[in-house]
Amino acid sequence: MSNIVIKEITDRSEAVQLDQLLWEMLWKPLDLPRNIRDSFKLEGECLELAAIIDDIIIGGLVVNWTSPSEVEIRHLVTKQETHGQGIGTQLVSELLDRVSDQGCTRIRTIARNTSSNFLRKLGFITSQEEPPEHPLFKKHGITFEVLEKNV
Question: Model confidence over 88-99: pLDDT tens digits?
Answer without folding.
Answer: 999 999 999 999
